[in-house]
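Problem: given the chain below (95 residues), write out its structure.
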Amino acid sequence: MSNHAEYFQSWPKGTEAELKASALSSIQLFFEEYNLDESQDLLWQIMKHCFFNPSTALKVPERENLVSFYENLHQMILAASILHNTRISQQVWTT
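Solution.
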């Protein structure tokens, strides 16, 4: 698990190739830590906690925003998984 300070870092800098390499590395590290099923399950657990925890009092606009964020993040994780698995498959076939 990463240090929480990493979440507050500034936008990455570098050439287009360096940024792409950094993005691919981040995706690879993510899926080495969490497979697709586990990542989607954890995302759902966060969502449930926000809605059903008695100490959480979200107003309707906040709930709507959270649901929208969940749906979009869920799709992004799925898309990243597809790209990651495609990249891994291509590496296996070319090595």
